[in-house]
# Entry
Amino acid sequence: MSNDFDPNRPKAEQLAREVSSALDRAGIHHILWGQLAFSVYSGNFPCNHIDFVVPNEDLDRACNNLDSTNLPCVTDNPSCSYWLIPEGSHAERIFHIDALNADEVLIHFDIRIFPMSWALPGYQQIAYRTFTDVIDRKDLILCSDQRLKGRFIYERYPIRMLAPVHYLQSIISRYLGLGSGLEIIRQFHREVITPLNEEGDTSEGFCMESLHFSYNIMLYSILHSLDENEIKATAEGVQSYLNAYEAHLSQMQEVREGLEAVEEADEEDEEPNESEETTSDDEQSDEAKDEEQMEDVNGDETQVDVMDVE
Ligand SMILES: [Zn+2]
# Structure
């Protein structure tokens, strides 16, 4: 927990709870992201931006739901960072709130709803506890998680967010090659990841082994080089590798689907005849072997590559 009490924090948590419960009622998957999330991880960061990520296809529905709660969509408040910026010039949708904080001071809050493809490039789903490049890994936690320095304490509503290392990965992919985000990545590493490492937390999403090897390369470059062009070159190299890796995965998926189709067709053709049954058993065991090999390629490749890098 941060030593400094942030008088804006109780209101920020309340607004986050209101948005999250409205989205839950509408059945829209969402996670807390951005500035308030950063404050939850680090315990020491402003919290005037209450950011949520929703699947692209649910962005309009999410905003319509929030509209119906009468949140203002435009502002003339000069302390708003969107003041005078025309709507449509940014990916996120914004709802503006002027509210009293714990010190009875009028403060401007922005509730921002981001489409997933913008905020979390590389993620296929959120809130399904599935991380796209390491199947079955658990990437989500609650804002009230005891391990987080700035965890929610004023609200108990179960709001989901990425585990810290997955959040680190999300901001690396978000800011890949963009100078403006590099300092945020360094700060997040310094204030959140390093202390976690020092505590020796080995749980999923809290230890650095949860970070995909390609992002480890990027992170190393961001932490150890101040030359933006050098970092950009690394980012491009990693990106082209990831593209090839993704193409490889989808190729393997096609092969797998082809094999399954052949298998199904075989099963339909099968006759309950003893002499043929022996042949069919042999075939099946061969196919099972093929499948096992493919699973090795799909499932274990990441780990093999991680070891290569190390
Ligand atoms: Zn605003």
Summary: DSSP finds nine helices and six strands in the chain. Residues 164-262 form one domain.
